[in-house]
Amino acid sequence: MIFGAHESVAGGLHRAIALAGEDRCEAVQIFTKVSGQWREPALSAEQIAAFRAARAAWAGAGRTLAHASYLINLCADDAAILERSREALFQELARCDALGIDFVVFHPGAPRSLGEEVGLDRIGESLSIVLSRAEGLRAQLCIENTAGQGSTLGDRVDQIAAMIDRAGPEGSRLGVCVDTQHAFAAGHDLRSEAGYERFWSDFGRLLGLERLRCMHMNDSKAGLGQRLDRHERIGDGEMGLAPFWRLANDARLARVPAVIELPPLSKERRGYMEEIARLRALEGAAEPVTLPGAAPGPPSRPPRGSPSRSPRRRAG
User: Fold this and answer.
1) If 0-12 CB within 10 Å is exposed, 13-18 middle and 19+ buried, where does residue 38 land?
2) What SMART domains does this protein map onto (predicted)?
3) How far is residue 139 CA from its own chain's centroid?
């Protein structure tokens, strides 16, 4: 896999690229605006040029992701919020296209009293509207799976497939971002070989593995199926190292950019370099303990389709 981190844009969007270099990232994710505000900033020609120049000079030269605003709800039961969400997602796409960012990751939304079917219809309609307006833009929208908290949709692979299908012809332009913590909290047990293969089998059958554009690599503070979005450092949470060992050694995912999403360890130390190093150390290693607190057992075979040795891969 191609590992990286979500980096701060304090001091300018281009600063995130410098931080990615310091952390030895081969992929980077940013916010292009304040994630908890509706205000849409207009980027100056200078800001765009600085970001593009920083990326061109970046030794990692990897994939770039932007996470859309957390306020976006493409199936809102309030008409004003729904319209505002559609506009915000389009504006995010336009900013990212100007910056040369590859993927725009977003949470689909929560229908609340409308229910699942109406919610899926609204998300499909919203995506069709946004993508029709975005004709010609190169940045690609990626639906992120969710933990399923409250009435949030997207915790099941079949729901994501329904969103894409209901977007009509525009659905062919959609990608998917898989967040490991969200999947685990939603009830997908990636710790066991059977659970891991079940998840990716469903993904391949309902979406097609080629639809996977990027991943978020996060351990979980929440237990399996608790439906809470609570990230933890790799190997320190309820998931343990086993799922990340499977991912790091899965040849099917060798070219997928995967970023960690964690707060810095302190004001002086981000800790992302250490997290990424921990992930890279899993490549080609023996399988770690499968379950947190379990006694070590003999290593099992690598995930299906994996090489016996998985060398570090550079982004291309």
Assistant:
1) middle
2) AP2Ec (SM00518)
3) 15
Note whether residue 116 is domain-resident.
yes
Is 302 a member of any domain? no
Residue type present at position 298? P
Nearest 10 degrees: CA dihedral of 37, 38, 42, 43?
40
In which domain, by residue range, is 205 found? 2-281
- Cα–Cα distance measured from residue 294 to residue 242, given in angstroms and rounded to the nearest whole number: 12
- Structural domain includes residue 310: no
Alpha-carbon distance 18 to 12, whole Å? Answer: 11
pTM of the model: 0.90
Tens-place pLDDT, residues 98-136: 999 999 999 999 999 999 999 999 999 999 999 999 999
CATH of the domain at 219: 3.20.20.150
The annotated binding site is made up of 67, 107, 144, 179, 182, 216, 229, 231, 261
Does residue 17 fall inside a structural domain?
yes
List, as residue ranges, the binding site for Zn(2+).
67, 107, 144, 179, 182, 216, 229, 231, 261
How many domains is the chain partitioned into structurally? 1
**What was the pLDDT predicted at 288?**
87
User: What values do phi and psi take at 216, rounded to 5?
Assistant: -110, 120
